[in-house]
Amino acid sequence: MVWFRKRMLIYAGILLVLLILSGRGSDFSITGLFQLGNTWEMLTDRFFPPRWDLVPYLLQQSLITMSIAFFGTLTALLVALPLSFLAAENTSGSAPGFYLVRSLLSVFRSVPEIVFGLIFVVSLGLGPFAALLAIFLHNVSVLGKLIAELVESSDKGPQEAMSSVGAGRRTGQLFSIIPQIWPNVLSHYFYRFEVAIRTSLVLGMIGGGGLGQSLMNYYNSLAYTSMATAIIIIMVLVIIVDVSGGIVRKRVI
Amino acid sequence: MLDFNNVTVRYDEAEDPAVDGLTMQIAKGEFVCVLGRSGAGKSTFIRTINGLQPLTGGSVTALGYELGGLDQKKLRQLRSEIGMIFQHFSLIPRMTVRQNVYTGRFGKRSSYRNYLGLFTEEEKQLTSYFLEEVGLLPYADRRVERLSGGQKQRVGIARAMVQEPSILLGDEPVASLDPTTSDHIFQLLRQLHEERELTTVINVHDVELAKKYASRIIGLKQGRLVFDGSPDDMSKADLDDIYE
After folding, report:
1. Cα→Cα distances A126→A63, A64, B86, Å
2. Which DSSP helix (H) or strand (E) runs through B72?
3. A81: domain CATH number?
4. Which residues on chain B are in Cβ contact (under 8 Å) with A179?
5. Closest CA to A179 of B162, B93, B33
6. Is the pLDDT of residue A249 over 80?
7. Rounded Cα–Cα distance for residues A199 and A196 (Å)
8. pLDDT at A216 over 80
């Protein structure tokens, strides 16, 4: 036991108990795993061949999905950036302001996008706008929190240098912190954009439009070969965003 | 030019004060090196001059203003007259050499001109002039993280000089550099000091550098003044007293 302390065994024991309890809670069964073959059979029997004639229509729908994700996350980033400075302990300027903004971000973050989506579908009607607002609100709170943490952990040297030249507080913060955290801000943004694409699919299923809505329509009408086409387009979409995000990150860093 | 009257700084968690009842004057045009062991209070002392370090007691008067009584606007105005260079350079990453030097003008301009990057022709010429002085004009458009330590400190010096300061402070400016580069940096600081009669106060660990370039040496020990005189006046016993 050179590498481990005794209390590690206790932690491992606790984790094991929690794992068993959560397995029971989620109906996990070993025998169920052996039935995965049925899923494969169902996929090969019913999902193939995909309906390629639907590609032009589904590409149009994917544009709606992309628009929801892009508009929702980019506007969220623009709002979250200044908010994050108010939500960071070292730049907020006042303790009550810091706690207020931080708490608001926490409250909004605790509400899943699908809940926002359900509310907006009812209040604003079916369509992409409800999905867009849901993604915007959730991402303002997530990006606000993540960027605030980057602001808090930024190097204090350049901030001190800006104070020493007599720069105003906000000017000093802007110029000394933003360049430091920018690559990580972009990294968070691209991750959130990628997540937003998947989320807008889910929101589509509850009436938010785009690819998600098409997917749900095909599922409800048992059109599995059409579903297969939609799934392939979703996969390509996510891969494109992931790769292009990686390229931009590399160029910026 | 600089008047310290019973200056005391005590950090919350510390038992002893970092600077303990320091009283002295520094006249215009002096080149002062501050010696002392790590933790002797050198950095704290330097930072009291431009108000980066608030005082627990006493007063500091710089360029005719008592720092304790200044509002934020006046303090920023005073800071714009005092250049400072740092041990770890404190440059803004991902910005070019020239952009970093421009930031030295921030205290003298309106915020919106800073945000929009609107610099006058005179300010552009001034920036180029000091980049030339520190030998970095050919690197003006290079990002600062691609420079060597010595070059980074030269950017720091150009940023401080573009303020057109009356006082130049250095907080261990050569502590991260090799001996040859350190000597070159001190040569440059001395040259700038002589060209402009610039009051210069620098913390340094290297006694030889201090003796070679300073017109006056101040020795601090546990926050107290234990030596104050010219390099020629400094004996081995004085040095032992500072560093023992």
Report:
1. 17, 14, 59
2. helix B72-79
3. 1.10.3720.10
4. 92-95
5. B93
6. no
7. 5
8. yes
Inside any domain, residue A171: yes
> Is residue B128 within 8 angstroms of chain A, CB to CB?
no
Beta bridge partners, A72, equal none
Please answer yes or no on whether A176 and B84 come within 8 Å at the CB atom: no
The torsion angles phi and psi of B65, rounded to 5 degrees, stand at -110, 135
Place of tokens 């690559």: A183
Tell me how far apart the alpha carbons of residues A112 and A117 are, in angstroms, rounded to a whole number: 9
Q: Is B163 on the interface with A (CB under 8 A)?
A: yes
Q: pLDDT category, A44, cuts 50, 70, 90?
A: confident
In a domain? residue A76 = yes
* Residue A101 covered by a domain: yes
- For B221, phi and psi rounded to 5 degrees? -145, 120
Whole-complex ipTM: 0.91
Please tell me which of the candidates A165, A174, A180 has its beta carbon nearest to residue B79.
Answer: A165
Q: What is the DSSP letter of B163?
A: T
Q: What domain range includes position A139?
A: 52-252
Which 85-124 residues of chain B touch chain A by CB within 8 A?
A: 86, 88-95, 103-108, 111, 114-115
Pick from B162, B157, B165, B52: nearest CA to B105: B162
The count of C-alpha atoms lying within 13 angstroms of the C-alpha of A130, restricted to the half-sphere facing its C-beta, is: 25
Smallest CA–CA distance, residue B227 to chain A, in Å, is 28
Compute the distance between CA of residue B141 and CA of residue B163 in angstroms, rounded to an integer. Answer: 20
| Residues of A in Cβ contact (< 8 Å) with B89 | 157
Percent of chain B exceeding pLDDT 90 equals 75
Q: Classify the phi-psi angles of A127: left when phi > 0, otherwise alpha if psi is within -120 to 50, otherwise beta.
A: left
Residues A33, A38, A41: CA angle, nearest 5 degrees:
135
How far is Cα B244 from Cα B42, in angstroms, rounded to an integer? Answer: 16
**What is d(CA A173, CA A167) in angstroms, rounded to the nearest whole number?**
9
When divided into structural domains, chain A yields a total of: 1
- Chain A residues with CB under 8 Å of B111 CB are 168, 170-171
Q: Which amino acid is at B117?
A: G
CB B173 within 8 A of CB B87: yes
Indicate the Cα dihedral angle B196, B191, B43, B2, nearest 10°. Answer: -30
- Predicted model pTM: 0.84
Q: Across residues B164-189, what is the average pLDDT?
A: 92
